[in-house]
Hints:
This protein is of the alpha+beta class. 33% of the residues lie in helices and 15% in strands. The protein has eleven helices and 16 strands. It has helices at 3-6, 38-56, 89-95, 102-112, 114-119, 123-139, 141-146, 153-175, 179-200, 243-254, 380-389; strands spanning 16-17, 23-24, 217-218, 221-228, 231-238, 265-266, 271-274, 285-286, 291-292, 298-299, 308-309, 332-335, 349-352, 372-378, 393-400, 405-406. The chain starts with a helix and ends with a strand.
Amino acid sequence: MSKTAARNYLRRPTLWQDRKGLSRRCRSFPAMARFQHRLQTALAGLLGISFSFLLSFGWFLVPSAEAAPVSLALPVVAYLPPGDAITDPRSLLRYSLPIDSPEIRNVQDNLEGLNYSLRTKQWGRAKREINKSAKLLNRKRTAILEAIPEERRATAEPLFGKINTQLEAMQTAAQTKDLETLWSGRRATLGVIGELEYLMVKGFPYEVPAEYDYLPQLKGRATIEFKTNEGPVTVVVDGYSAPVTAGNFVDLVERGFYDGMTFDRAEENYVLQTGDPDGPEAGFIDPKTKKYRAIPLEILVEGDDVPTYGATLEDLGRFLEKPVLPFNSFGALAMARPESEPDGGSSQFFFFLFEPELTPAGLNLLDGRYSVFGYTVDGKESLDKMGRQGGKILSAKVIDGLDNFVAPKA
């Protein structure tokens, strides 16, 4: 798609950028915190409703001072989510794994929900939740192991002992009201639980439609490290939920496509965007076909077996449903595209820089309209700096998971 052609999509400003100054259109999450403070919930809801109201008038999606006021087609829906929104990127990645083990999910839910007790320093409640986690783990150990393929169970066995040791340390820390140790212990314990859950994944869970065989795909996950002028940024891209989008991105990283690119759109508390190459085209031109490589809009909805392609959730009448990979986390990684062309994305991507506490799950207008395909797990400070003043990718490299990459079929 040429830059000139892309300007024809200027019906309203969206996440599609021109470095030359052309504003263009260029599985189910369990409830992890069931004890929500009423005042906190009311304030979050009020902020979300107010923010959604502003979004409905286009005050947030205007990419430049020259852009005219807009009217967004997506209806504003204000409602309170059924608990605290999950905003931690590693937690989002754990919950999005394609596994079927309610036993390990119950242990995880309990520890994820511990954050409320720690924030409010409810020591008695924290002790009860830690004790409950330990009991659940030991009572359901057999069922948890049975959810892991037999050839991996020897690897899983030592992880149970590691979790129990960490829980015992957390119990001691709760007795002495050692908040720092509790936070670090929770993080470490959930990390090991994530290792157990990853061992449960039994191959790739579905068939990607054959019509996308000509595109690169990622049948699993990969970790990518960006070196920027403001420091390193590490992201995990999730091919389980967005195999085509993630595969395209990994392919471009491996080609060195993003090396040396500047972030041409830097908006504090909104987005940090790049991927528009030099020249007349707005995306990647495949050297084999000499054509613009277009990527379909790809969104996996909670409860669905396979992603939807080629349409926003709004267009499908599913705008109240939740994507498996939502815009809940600072540094969520998503594909930019022309507004009127769901399948027009190519190489332009953006980091979401808004603090999600101000827009509870289901109350922003990006979910279901853009393909999230990963999360930033390290380097938030670097993104924050570049969001305020711009920045540059010095290099990008796949440091893990390249074996999950599947090259396009001829």
